[in-house]
Amino acid sequence: MKIFLVRHGADEEGFRGGWSSRGLIEQGVFQSRRLGEFLHRYQDEYGIRTIMSSDLPRAVETAREIERIINKETIYSEDWREMNNGYLAGMPNQEAEKRYPGVYFNTLDMDAPFPGGETPKHFYNRITKAFESLRRKLECQEVKSNVLLVTHGGVINVLYYHLNGQDWTNKSPFFPIDNTSVHTVERILNQWKITEKNTMKHL
To answer: Do residues 18 and 89 lie in contact, with contact meaning Cβ atoms separated by under 8 Å?
Structure first.
C-alpha cells in the first residue's frame, strides 16, 4: 500500500507561488510528460490505481500530462493546495516587495496569516488532516492503492515532518523536493513511512 507524492512541474520564476493561478512552463510540461511515460513503462512496479491532485493550475497541468499517458482519471481537491498566500498569490516579486515588504512564508508567526490568506498553523493542520483522511480511506479500501498524489513542495515538506514525527514550523528547513520528483510513502507493519526520497529516475 503506497502513496507516491509528486511535486508539480516547473513553473514561471519571478512570481510569488502559493495559490498562484500561473501554470507550467515548457520545461514543466516536458518533466510531467516524462514522468507519465516512466510510470506507464514501469506500471508493474508502481501499479498506480488512483491519481489525486491539487486543483491549482500548475498541479492540474502536471496531472493531466500524466493521466493522459497512464489512462487514469484524476480526482482534484483544494485540500492539497500549497499554502494560501492571499493577495500575494501570483504577484510579481518586485510588486510584492513594494506592496508587502518583508512578508514571506518564513517571516510569519505561526498564528499570523498572509494578507488575505492563511496562517502557517492552519496550513499544517489542513495538510496533515487531508493526509490522515487519505490514509484511513486507503486502509479501509475506500480509495484504491497505489495512489499518485500531485501536489506542491510546501505540502510534501510538511508531510516529511509529519511522517517522521518531527515538530514543524514555517521556519523549519526544507527537505530536497525538486519539480516532478517522486517521494514514496509506504505502509509497513501498520505504520506509514517514507521509503524513497526525491527520486528523479524519469529524467
So the answer is: yes
- Sign for the CA dihedral angle at 29, 162, 141, 130 comes to negative
Taking the C-alpha atoms of residue 9 and residue 101, their distance in angstroms, rounded to an integer, is 28
Please enumerate in sequence order all residues whose Cβ is within 8 A of that of 12, keeping only pairs 6 or more positions apart, or say none.
Answer: 22, 25
Q: At what angle do helices 57-70 and 26-41 cross, to 10 degrees?
A: 30
Please state the domain extents for the chain: 2-199
β-pairing, 50-54 with 74-77? parallel
Reported as a pLDDT band with limits 50, 70 and 90, residue 19 is: very high
Three-state secondary structure call for residue 7: strand
CATH class, range 2-199: alpha beta
Helix (H, G, I), strand (E, B), or coil: what is residue 147? Answer: strand
pTM of the model: 0.96
Rounded Cα distance between 36 and 79, Å, is 23
Residue 149's pLDDT is 98
Calpha distance 82→154 (Å, rounded): 6
